[in-house]
Design brief:
Structural class: alpha+beta
Number of strands: 16
CATH topology of the largest domain: BirA Bifunctional Protein, domain 2
CATH superfamily of the largest domain: Bira Bifunctional Protein, Domain 2
Strand order of the largest sheet: 1-5-6-11-10-9-7-8
Largest sheet: 8 strands, mixed
CATH class of the largest domain: Alpha Beta
C-alpha cells in the first residue's frame, strides 16, 4: 500500500511549520497584548454538546466518533441508540461556552480567552477548504458592551498590520437581518432567510431566492427583501436608506444604532478597512448581534480568512442564562495561503539552525561539543554535523538546510584555540577567532 493521508488533511514539513508558527505566534502575541488568557479544550466533545448549535447545515458537517467495543455491539443490536455519542470539535466557540458553564464559579467575568487549536469538518475537500484545520479564537463573555466589538475590530487590524497584509473587515448586525425578515412579513423564517442570504456572494441572487422558496419563504416576502440587494455606498449612505426602509422594526433600529456606535468608536485603522455589508449573514444560528467577516485585499483567495460575531445566550443551552459574549476566529490555514501567494512571509524565520560545527574527527568533535554548549547557552541555535565526512558534503547539508554559518575546527584551530567562522555563500575561506568573538558576532545578526 502506498503511504497516504486522508483527503482534506495535510502534512506540514519544517519550512511550512516555521511559517505556521510565525502566524500563530503573531496572533498569540496580539491576543496577549489585549488581555486575553489562553485556554484549551479536548478534541472530542459529547455529541449532544455540539448538535443543534450550528444550524442544519453545520450539524451535517460534524465529525461523529463511532462507539467502541460493547457499546457499539449494543448499538448494532438496537439501532435506536445511535452509533455515535461523541464528536470531534466543529469550532472552538461552542466548547468554550460549555467550558464557561462548567467552570463558571472559578472564572472572573467578563472573561477574555484565546484558543489556538485544530477543528474538524466532515466537508468536501477543495481549494482553501480542509477537513482538519486550525482556528485562532478570541472571545469576551459576560458583557454586553459594544466596546468589545470595537476592541476586536482593532485586534483584527493589529494582527494584519503585524503580518503586513491589507484586509477588509466586513460588518453587519443580525438584528438588522431580523428586522428585514420582520418587514418582509415572515419573521418566523428569519433563520432560513439569513442562511440563504449568507450564500449570496457564492451562488448569486437568483439561487438565493430559489433556496428561500424551497424553505417556504413566500414570493411576497422575497419581494419585500429585494431592497437589501440594491444597497450600495458607504455606511452612512446605506444607513439612511435602511433607517427609512426598516422604520417599522424596533429590533432593526437598535441594530443600526449599534453599528453607528461601532463605526464611530473604532477610529483610524492601519491595515484594515471597515465596511458595512448588508448581505453578510454568517449562517450560524447562535449569532444575535454584530457579525464580522475578514477578506484579504491582496491575492486571489476570495473566501473569508476570519469571522465572528455577538452571541447573546450561547451558554443558555448549557443552563447558564444571560451570559452574552462576542468573539472572532482567525483561519490560520487560509491566512497562510494568502501570505504565501503574496510573498509576505519574512525571508528568515526564527527556529532554524544558525550555526553548524563541521566534523573533522573524534578529537575535534569532542572539542566542538564544549563549544556547542557555550554557543547554545548564549541563545544561538547550533548543531554539530554527526559524521566525519568530506567537508563539501557538510557544506551542502548547511546549504540545503538554510544554515547561514559554518564553524570549522580542524587540527590547526584546535592547537590555536580558535574557530574559523565561514558564512555560507561567501567566497572567502572564513575568519579565525576565539569562540567568544564568534558568539558576539552571531548575536549581532
Amino acid at each position: 500500500m502506498k503511504p497516504s493521508i486522508p483527503k482534506g488533511t495535510r502534512d506540514f514539513g519544517p519550512q511550512e511549520m516555521l511559517r505556521r508558527k510565525y502566524i500563530f505566534n503573531t496572533i498569540e502575541k496580539v491576543f496577549q497584548k489585549y488581555g486575553y488568557l489562553p485556554l484549551e479544550t479536548p478534541a472530542m466533545e459529547h455529541l449532544e454538546t455540539l448538535t443543534g448549535k450550528y444550524g442544519e447545515e453545520g450539524d451535517r458537517l460534524i465529525f461523529k466518533v463511532l462507539k467502541r467495543g460493547a457499546e457499539l455491539e449494543r448499538a448494532l443490536e438496537d439501532r435506536s441508540k445511535g452509533f455515535a455519542d461523541e464528536a470531534l470539535r466543529y469550532d472552538l466557540t461552542v466548547p468554550f461556552a460549555r467550558y464557561v458553564v462548567q467552570h463558571q464559579n472559578d472564572l472572573v467575568f467578563p472573561f477574555k480567552r484565546y484558543q489556538i487549536q485544530p477543528v474538524w469538518r466532515a466537508d468536501r475537500p477543495q481549494k482553501g477548504r480542509y477537513r482538519e484545520f486550525y482556528q485562532c479564537d478570541a472571545d469576551v463573555i459576560g458583557s454586553t458592551s459594544l466596546l468589545s466589538e470595537v476592541e476586536l475590530i482593532q485586534l483584527f487590524d493589529d494582527v494584519f498590520t503585524q503580518l503586513g497584509l491589507k484586509v477588509v473587515v466586513k460588518i453587519n448586525d443580525r438584528k438588522v437581518l431580523s428586522g428585514i425578515a420582520e418587514v418582509s412579513g415572515q419573521p418566523e423564517k428569519v433563520v432560513d432567510i439569513v442562511t440563504a442570504i449568507d450564500k449570496l456572494d457564492k451562488i448569486g441572487r437568483e439561487k438565493v431566492e430559489e433556496e428561500m422558496r424551497e424553505k417556504g419563504v413566500s414570493d411576497q416576502a422575497i419581494q419585500g427583501i429585494a431592497p437589501l440587494f440594491e444597497l450600495k455606498g458607504t455606511w452612512n449612505e446605506q444607513r439612511v436608506k435602511l433607517e427609512q426602509w426598516l422604520a417599522p422594526s424596533a429590533i432593526a433600529q437598535q441594530g443600526l444604532k449599534d453599528l453607528s456606535f461601532t463605526f464611530e468608536a473604532v477610529g483610524q485603522l492601519k491595515s484594515a478597512v471597515l465596511e458595512f455589508d448588508p448581505t453578510l449573514a454568517r449562517g450560524l444560528d447562535y449569532y444575535t448581534g454584530a457579525i464580522f467577516e475578514v477578506k484579504a485585499a491582496e491575492g486571489s483567495l476570495q473566501s473569508s480568512i476570519c469571522g465572528g460575531g455577538r452571541y447573546d445566550d450561547l451558554t443558555g443551552v448549557f443552563g447558564l442564562k444571560g451570559m452574552s459574549g462576542v468573539g472572532i476566529s482567525f483561519g490560520a490555514d487560509r491566512i497562510y495561503d494568502v501570505l504565501l501567494e503574496t510573498g509576505k512571509f519574512p525571508a528568515e524565520l526564527g527556529g532554524s539552525t544558525q550555526l553548524l560545527f563541521a566534523n573533522f574527527g573524534e578529537a575535534e568533535a569532542l572539542h566542538c561539543l564544549k563549544l556547542l554548549r557555550q554557543v547554545r547557552e548564549a541563545g544561538i541555535a547550533a548543531e554539530l554535523y554527526p559524521d566525519a565526512t568530506k567537508l563539501p558534503k557538510q557544506f551542502t547539508y548547511a546549504e540545503k538546510k538554510g544554515i547561514p554559518y559554518v564553524a570549522i575546527v580542524g587540527e590547526s584551530e584546535l592547537q590555536q584555540g580558535v574557530v574559523t567562522l565561514k558564512r555560507m555563500g561567501a567566497n572567502d575561506k572564513g575568519t579565525a577567532m576565539p569562540i567568544e568573538a564568534l558568539i558576539a558576532q552571531l548575536l549581532q545578526h
